[in-house]
Amino acid sequence: MTPTVSASGLSLRYGGTRALDDVSLRLSTGVTGLLGPNGAGKTTLLRVLATAVPADRGAFTVLGHDPGTSRGRQELRRNLGYLPQTPGFHPDFTACEFVDYVAILKEHTDRAARHREVRRVLDEAGLGDVRGRRIRKLSGGMRQRVALAAALVGDPAFLVLDEPTVGLDPEQRMRFRELIARAGEGRTVLLSTHQTEDVAMLCHRVVVLAEGTVRFDGTPAELTARAAERVWSSAERDPGAKAGWRTGLGTFRNVGDPPAGADLLEPTLEDGYLLTLDGADTEVTA
Questions:
Q1: pTM of the entire predicted model
Q2: Domain spans of the chain?
Q3: 110, 138, 188, 259: which is deepest, by most CB within 10 A?
Q4: What single DSSP character describes residue 135?
Q5: 260: exposed, middle or buried (C-beta count within 10 Å: 0-12, 13-18, 19+)?
Q6: Sign of the alpha-carbon dihedral angle for 158, 162, 164, 170
Q7: What is the third-level CATH fold of 1-63+157-219?
């Protein structure tokens, strides 16, 4: 299968900080999760792929378009939907006015066709009934839907989502997952998140980034398998565990190298993620 996105050797520094270090990846149709701790370089990678900031070294293409050329960058942006970590809403805009404004920026110049497209994406995001409501009066979940609707304008082949479920309550997160899952049908979605459950429920593939480098690239099942026979239960926190926390049952769940005879537990994707970050400040205590 020809990848939608092909990146090789992407590197970027901010002063003395190494944000990306020789990052290579290939993305195809479906939802790929991007996991990593704070400061891992996730947002920087998304900004590079969204052509918001250029890399110092390396190259990438989206649908064969090279952003290193003016024409390639223009074509790439026409096929791109980007939901940044902090969408720049104007609070006095209605949901419809904001998405219409984004459609104008995306060069949808025919007024009638543009308004049909705005209504389509608002309906797709479940906002048809509130399209005339001002953004400042919408809940956090509704505002994130407005931002997603704006990203979907023009039916982009590549959708970049930076922490779209942060700050949402469980019901809002569930509804937003439904939208992301539908968006991933027939297009390529790169989803940056701290929520391992989002990845487990939505993604066919996961990339783990830490200190600007790719630590893992594979399926969620393969990431979970990294913790096989390395998760155990105990009455007290095991001091030899790489991570450990008290559960609701009052026992401790430990991750690392179990002692002989330990009561082994089924691993989760989060367990595999923590072990992948071993050595990158991942100790968890409670």
A1: 0.91
A2: 1-63+157-219, 88-154, 229-266
A3: 188
A4: G
A5: exposed
A6: positive
A7: Rossmann fold (3.40.50)
